[in-house]
Write a structure and sequence with these properties.
CATH superfamily: Jelly Rolls
Mean pLDDT: 84
Strand order of the largest sheet: 1-8-3-6
Radius of gyration: 17 Å
Helix content: 25-40%
Number of helices: 5
Number of strands: 8
Structural class: alpha+beta
Number of domains: 1
CATH class: Mainly Beta
CATH architecture: Sandwich
Distance between the termini: 54 Å
Order of helices and strands: HHEEEEEEHEEHH
Length: 165
Amino acid sequence: MTTEMEIFIKLLGLAKCLKGFELDDLRSLLSISSKATWKKGETVFVEGDHGRDMFIICSGKVSIWRKNGGSNVSLASLAEGESFGEMGLVRGCERSAGATAVEPTVALRISYERLHQAPSAAAALYKNIAKELAERLKIADDIIVFQSQAGAEHPPLMTIGRHAR
């Protein structure tokens, strides 16, 4: 096994989205994945872009952001073992946020088109992504409750998840 592959396997052990993977599933996932690299300050993708790839950071850092008015609002700063782009993989529509490399970054790219060549790994990955997205939803719910308790107007919850007509 190459040193680079050993590093990928070691770092992937840290990834939440790969918890509980069997060794065969991890091998299958690695066989259909590719390496992605970005320089410091390089854009990975922009909010509104179409994209179905997700990424697991092997080294470096990535900032996740959304546009608000004329500026970017930071949502998260991600490092080794963390993943991003899952919503694109699952939803298959426009990116809900942008991503920029904060420093030179290497990641494992998981392509939707190739993921289904490894069905057992895909099932395990989707299960872990569902858990991760459920946790993010709980946090978002907690923020809404906190804001309403603090006297802020909260968004009309009846419109969440509905498309504008």
